[in-house]
Amino acid sequence: MKKTFLFAICLFTVLTYSQEIKLISQINVSGEGKIKVVPDQVTILATVETKGTNAKEVKKENDQQMESVLKLVKSMNLAPGDFKTKRVSLNPQYDYEKKKHTYNGTQTIEILLRDLSKYDELMEGMVDQGINRIESVTFQSSKLVQYQSDARKLAIKEAKMKAEDYVSVLGQKVGAGITITDNSQTYYPQPVYAMKSMAMEADSATPRQTMAAGEIEITANVSVSFKLE
After folding, report:
1. I want to staple 167 with a disulfide (CB 3.0 to 4.6 A). Which of 37, 52, 103, 172 is the partner?
2. pTM, to two decimals
3. Which InterPro entries does the annotation name (predicted)?
4. Mean of pLDDT values over 14-24
């Protein structure tokens, strides 16, 4: 009997709570915040590729060219943590028509350049020292975390403004937020892909500007439920 009585009380409490939840007047809206910023740094993926019929010679030539590239990078006073070897490979390839093996050696270096004014100097210098493939160039902001926070705040403000627009016609007011859902996707800077092979004019005496960084866009999306008063 006691168990039945306790079960009835619990059931009544759950039903009453559910009814109270359903009776809360609320509005569900979405908001988007966008921040456009000028990038202040760039990540470059660059590769030295060598080919030949002798594996040892191909690797040796590849190492020599990458050594020259690293010397150039170090001479530009980049922090040791801002450049690193990303990939190294030495692969045999068989030519069925000529019935002989050749070898393809590659080394890829990743460079974070924090001073964009050195971009052209670095790119031209790397090609002069042996880089013959630019994999990608990705412009970024060193203040990404701050801008992501600003974008989220703008998204919440837009959501509240939408809610106020809707309920103003009904003569109601927007109350406290009930739930907030972050629908933002992880921000990945979009790389600019270069051609497989790259050549620059070595005899040009006039400094050239080949970079147009433009702007990067950081976006936040939220869904918010507000209580209506």
Report:
1. 172
2. 0.71
3. 26kDa_periplasmic_antigen (IPR052022), SIMPL/DUF541 (IPR007497)
4. 56
